[in-house]
Amino acid sequence: MSALVGLNVADSCAECDVRFSRLFCNLPVEALRDLDTIKYTSSFPKGAVLFSEGQSPRGVFIVCTGRIKLSTSSSEGKALITQIATEGDLIGLSATMAGKPYEVTAEALEPSTVNVVRRDDFLRFLTSHPEACLKVAQHLGNDYHAAFEKARTLGLSSSAAEKLARLMLDWMERDGTQENQGVRLKLTLTHEEIAQMINTSRETVTRLLSDFKTDNIIQIKGATWLVRDKQALESLVKS
């Protein structure tokens, strides 16, 4: 197996130490052993494209390490980031199941390793393992819920400040670490990428973050964010 330097990836899904904490990977050992026979592991440097919007589905990509940006673009070149996939996420799943082109472009935000399963092999695998079918259904349900929340945020938020507050609260719930002084986040997104997640401009994101820092809502040092006043963010979000 080829892996990027510094990435610790198990050769076998059945022997992965963290599989129990990941939705799809938490399968019976027999199913994981069958998965090992049909998947191949690929490593991608930062900026590499795994697949492109409109491309016929080759199969599913199971993120082992790193983060993958999923985005869609208009004919004018305006981009919208729909998701940041992390360890344990399946990407390209809906296109693979439906046999329709990928809806998004997948790009590595950092050095990443994924397990790739070709479409025909994946569909055969599902017919042999009902547990995997249930996991896929749960994953698609989660994806639908996330897409609904994304549409709700973009469509019903009255201001860019509310959109950014919603996004930050979501990050805190999913990836935040509670500390005495607040909730710590590790982010490597640029202001442009954050803007693409909430459908606004880079300048607006820069201004809002500056305002949040002035109001002592957040502290930012490099890729480390410390949210000191969660209630202030919640006050910006309308029910």
- What's the number of helices? 8
Distance between the termini: 48 Å
Strand content: 15-25%
Which sequence of strands runs across the widest sheet? 1-8-3-6
Task: Describe the overall structure.
With 239 residues, this protein is an alpha+beta fold. Helices cover 41% and strands 24% of the residues. The strands form 3 sheets. A 4-stranded antiparallel sheet has the order 1-8-3-6. A hairpin with a 5-residue loop joins strand 4 (68-73) and strand 5 (79-85). It is globular, with a radius of gyration of 19 Å. The protein starts with 28 loop residues before the first helix and ends with a helix. Residues 1-7 have low confidence and may be disordered.
Fold blueprint:
Layout: H1 29-38, E1 39-44, E2 49-51, E3 59-65, E4 68-73, E5 79-85, E6 90-91, H2 93-98, E7 105-108, E8 112-118, H3 119-128, H4 130-156, H5 160-175, E9 177-179, E10 182-186, H6 191-198, H7 202-214, E11 218-221, E12 224-227, H8 230-236
Antiparallel strand pairs: 1-8, 2-7, 3-6, 3-8, 4-5, 4-7, 9-10, 10-12, 11-12
Helix pairs in contact: 3-4, 5-8, 6-7
List keywords for this structure.
single chain, 239 residues, alpha+beta, 4-stranded antiparallel sheet, 12 strands, globular
What is the structure about, briefly put?
41% of the residues lie in helices and 24% in strands.
